[in-house]
Amino acid sequence: MEPPDYNYLFKIFILGDTNSGKTCYLDRLTEDNFTHSKSPTYHDFRINKIIFNDNCSIKLQLWDGNANLRFRTIYSPPYRGTHGIILTYDICDRNSFLNCKNWYIEAKRYINDGIPMIIIGTKLDKVDFDEKKRQVTYDQGKTFAQELGLNFYEISSKYNIGIRQTIMDLIGLIIEDRVSNKNNIQANDNNNNNNNKPKNCTIQ
Ligand SMILES: Nc1nc2c(ncn2[C@@H]2O[C@H](COP(=O)(O)OP(=O)(O)OP(=O)(O)O)[C@@H](O)[C@H]2O)c(=O)[nH]1
Ligand SMILES: [Mg+2]
């Protein structure tokens, strides 16, 4: 059997209110594009390969967690085996920020305790020229994330601000988590027996 052409396979969920920019984030990350008019996602996942620390090949299974209540009554997200979570809110929509706590609670309820998580405030470009559009300050987002012990970022999928940093930091946290072996997340590791793992697959 051919050995896998990657060092790690990570399953990552992106969660947050409808309209918080989850699909646009994934579009930018996986296809490097942005489209303004989007319909609500039913459920979706994508595969993406990314190089971490120069020569560590990571295969990402990115799940676009649907937020629409209509869909959620007939479809429960396949959280099993998740390695990392991205919580999102729209910095121009205070309700989506307030609801972020509920998404955090949902993640904690269904996903292994201690799984690496980050929080992103989206649509940073919208406040570039008009700060009045902002409904959540940077400090509010940061404080909220700190209270939960999570990394915090403000990003723009439209202008490609912060996208790469967020995913790289999350991958770093997941690898760190594996190294410290806090979570039993070996199930999706297709590389358990690979002795040729590049040394850059470790955190430096
Ligand atoms: N200006 C700006 N608009 C954005 C950005 N990201 C998303 N949007 C807009 O916000 C709307 C919702 O974005 P989506 O990515 O579809 O939101 P979602 O979280 O996937 O929504 P659901 O699929 O319903 O859960 C769309 O009209 C996007 O064009 C951004 O970085 N900047
Ligand atoms: Mg969507």
Automatic annotation (TrEMBL):
Pfam families: Ras. CDD domains: Rab. The keyword ATP-binding does not apply. Gene3D superfamilies: P-loop containing nucleotide triphosphate hydrolases. SUPFAM superfamilies: P-loop containing nucleoside triphosphate hydrolases. One of its GO terms (molecular function) is GTP binding. The keyword GTP-binding applies. Keywords: GTP-binding, Lipoprotein, Nucleotide-binding. Residues 184-204 are annotated as: Disordered. Belongs to the small GTPase superfamily. Rab family. This is Rab GTPase. It comes from Dictyostelium purpureum (Slime mold). The lineage of its organism: Eukaryota, Amoebozoa, Evosea, Eumycetozoa, Dictyostelia.
